[in-house]
User: Fold this.
Amino acid sequence: MNIGEAARQSGLPAKTIRYYEDIDLVVPRRGGNGYRSYSPTDVHKLQFVQRARGLGFSVQNCRTLLSLYEDENRASADVKAIAEGHLAEIEAKIEELKALRHTLKHLVDNCHGDHRPHCPIIDGLAGPEH
Amino acid sequence: MNIGEAARQSGLPAKTIRYYEDIDLVVPRRGGNGYRSYSPTDVHKLQFVQRARGLGFSVQNCRTLLSLYEDENRASADVKAIAEGHLAEIEAKIEELKALRHTLKHLVDNCHGDHRPHCPIIDGLAGPEH
DNA sequence: TATAAAGGTTCCAGTTACTGGAAGGTCAAG
DNA sequence: CTTGACCTTCCAGTAACTGGAACCTTTATA
Assistant:
């Protein structure tokens, strides 16, 4: 099938699918007219990548996961290790954002938000001494 | 003062400070030798940006905040609006990441993580039907 | 004074994961 | 035969830096 149909079935933009070919993630055969020709297996891979990206896995991780997906002799431990690593990153990011939110909320809550220039947010950003 | 000292005082890498000049965020004068010469005011601006970036504000927002920082006639409402917008983005991001974490944790918890190939994580990524 | 280290300069390229757009080839329908 | 949908490649841009090369200036030391 052509890239348009592959896009429909995978939920990925055609542009992205071309990009995935560019970086050797999912490489289709070519028809006589030069068009990309996606097999059902190719589409499964695209769907796989679409879901993995949707869960925030990096393209590099997707590459590894895809090879594990295709490896009948994989060890589930290898998959789990990647997922746990990613989970740890997500949790770290959440904590980081919570800390930012905490600080920012303080500043916002103390700002009158009126026409006057005095502003605790600006003061906070300018630093303790100023 | 030279860029090195400005870097020390602002906590920003010299590379980043040069970049900020490139994008017209903080532009110093130049000495006779062609070296960048940072005034105390320039350094305050760099510190301001460093803190704002540390709170996750985009460089574009930093640009606006910096102009408000320098505007004696600013309305604190303008500052607050930017901060609230950013806060909302942070909160949205946190929710998004929490949802990812939830899904991912499910998958990870159900994976044995041993030498065998069966893997709920892979199955989850492959999709419902497969 | 020679020189070497430290610190400054510019410019180019790479990072992540796409996305937009231009110029042009192919195909199915009417 | 033309129109429109779909396909192709290639180039550039995004955000916010970061690394590195090649080269110049200043400062400290032998």
About this structure: The first helix of chain A runs from residue 3 to 10.
